[in-house]
Design a protein that fits this description.
The complex is a heterodimer of chains A (142) and B (127). Chain A has 142 residues and is an all-alpha fold. In chain A, 84% of the residues lie in helices and 0% in strands. Chain A is built from seven helices and no strands. Chain B has a single domain, classed as Up-down Bundle (3 helical TM bundles of succinate and fumarate reductases), CATH 1.20.1300.10. In chain B, 76% of the residues lie in helices and 0% in strands. By secondary structure, chain B is mainly alpha-helical. Classes of the chains: A mainly alpha (142), B mainly alpha (127). The interface between A and B is large, with 54 and 46 residues.
Chain lengths: 142, 127
């Protein structure tokens, strides 16, 4: 733990202070080392997902039992399709970051870590692309 | 590969509110990953047309589909409220032990209440 903190290029960036400005947060995200970037990326994506999830939960609750026409009408509206695209991008990004931490914590062997991480990233990329393309297709067609 | 403090293994912890909530946060996170894969399948079926949508629809309205949806909604609310708790900690707020316990109970109650409200208002259980 202590060894790690010394290793980080900027100790302040490890934990966000009470009066940290957003611009400083973005600066750290761009300029600091890989684990610090990861830490910030996970928090920023989480913060964006809070309001998006309220829309999402409301939507799936009602859309889960709606018929085809209803869902198409709902998803082909400008607001909902844009929100869905943003939601998919950020949620898959956040999911990969989260799974990466779990893999790093609980998988001990280096090569197993690498293979699992590659599998997670590949699956997330393919799935996210399919979801994005489907949403765009529905928006364009209807 | 990782240059950060990693979490001790699960057997290290004596089960207590704080550790159970923390592990559940990860558990729900993994479960939510399955959920967004299903969301993706739902979107793909929708884009493919009415026929494939109806096949998916048959599963979402079945008893196991409902069960999955209910667990998904609870996991989402749990991960959301506990995530907000985590964001407070990241700003250095509420880190002492008694506050951690209190916020843990409050978070758990809020996530259960939000789940029940959604299930009732959204009429999720009846088909």
């Amino acid at each position: 733990m202590y060894k790690y903190i010394v290793n980080v290029d900027n100790v302040d960036s490890w934990r966000c202070g009470n009066n940290m400005k957003i611009s400083k947060a973005f600066h750290i995200l761009i300029s600091s080392s890989e684990p610090v970037k990861h830490w910030w990326a996970q928090r920023l994506s989480a913060a964006i997902l809070v309001p998006l999830n309220l829309w999402f939960i409301y939507s799936i609750t009602f859309m889960s039992k709606a018929n085809y026409e209803t869902v198409i009408v709902w998803l082909s509206s400008k607001t909902n399709s844009i929100l869905m695209l943003i939601f998919i991008l950020i949620i898959y990004y956040h999911a990969v970051l989260g799974l990466q931490v779990i893999i790093e914590d609980y998988v001990a062997t280096e090569w197993r870590k690498k293979i699992l991480l590659f599998f997670v990233k590949a699956t997330a990329t393919i799935a996210a692309l399919s979801a994005l393309i489907s949403t765009i297709v529905i928006f364009m067609e209807y | 590969m990782v240059n950060r403090p990693i979490s001790p293994h699960l057997q290290i912890y004596k089960p207590q509110l704080t550790s159970v909530l923390s592990i559940t946060h990860r558990g729900t996170g993994i479960f939510l990953c399955l959920g967004i894969l299903l969301l993706t399948t739902w979107l793909v079926c929708l884009a493919l047309g009415e026929e494939s949508y109806n096949i998916f629809y048959k599963h979402t309205t079945s008893w196991y589909g409902k069960l999955f949806l209910i667990s998904f909604i609870f996991s989402l609310f749990y991960h959301l409220t506990n995530g907000i708790r985590h964001l407070f900690w990241d700003f250095g707020l509420g880190l002492d032990l008694s506050t951690t316990y209190k916020s843990g109970y409050v978070m758990l109650c809020i996530s259960i209440l939000l789940t029940l409200t959604t299930l009732i208002l959204g009429d999720v259980v009846t088909i």
